[in-house]
Specification:
The protein folds into two domains: about 1-55, no CATH class; about 65-175, Glutathione S-transferase Yfyf (Class Pi), Chain A, domain 2, CATH 1.20.1050.10. Helices cover about 60% and strands about 5% of the residues. The chain has helices spanning about 15-20, 40-50, 65-85, 90, 100-120, 135-155, 165-170, 175-205, and strands spanning about 30, 40. The chain has a two-stranded antiparallel sheet. A hairpin with a 5-residue loop joins strand 1 and strand 2 (about 40). Helix 3 (about 65-85) packs antiparallel against helix 5 (about 100-120) and helix 3 packs parallel to helix 6. Bound molecules: glutathione. Glutathione binds near residues 14, 26, 29 and 85.
Amino acid sequence: MYKELPFQENLIFAGSDELLRVSPVGKVPAITTDEGVTLSESSVICDFIEETYPAIPLYPDSATERAAVRQIMKIWELYFELPSRRLIPYVFSGTNAPDAVKEEVRQVLTRGITALNRLCQFSPWIAGEQFTMADIYVHYVNTIVNAFAATQLDWDVLAEIPGMKEWNDKMSQSDIAQKVEADRLANMPKFMQHVKAQIQAAQSK
Ligand SMILES: N[C@@H](CCC(=O)N[C@@H](CS)C(=O)NCC(=O)O)C(=O)O
């Protein structure tokens, strides 16, 4: 949307054969390119879109600065997104994660917080003066951190990074973020119905 590219969105839920046809691990997001090639993994898709449609760039020109942007994205993925996702089953099933799991997640997040306090610029964007893919990526991951880690651990994780909350609020106000959020909320009842059915199916096994 930021690059003003036309695309068709397909609503596909996890656990379906339809999704496995476009994503080898059966996860969203996944895309089918103009050439009919299927791709999954958010960061891979981000890079593909940038390389294929360089107009309205989302990475800096210099290789060093591009690497710095990717470093923020990678650390966010490994030290914020993945540990937060560990807690998803507990949030969706309305149970409390075991203490050992919570402790493991807390430790990984703590490393991420230390790293990001060193790397984030917020001047005004996360990697500096240029709005980059890291801004889009981190804003998306933050919804996962807030929805799962913050609730299960009773810990305002983003508050540990000065400037993060203000930047995140600013990101949420963009027209694109508002449209994405409106779509997400509109789909939520259907999504939760699907999640509940999956949990029930797993419990009856
Ligand atoms: N590393 C993947 C993570 C994708 C992911 O976990 N997607 C979730 C939804 S946000 C999913 O499809 N979950 C379904 C499942 O685990 O079966 C990426 O960056 O694209």
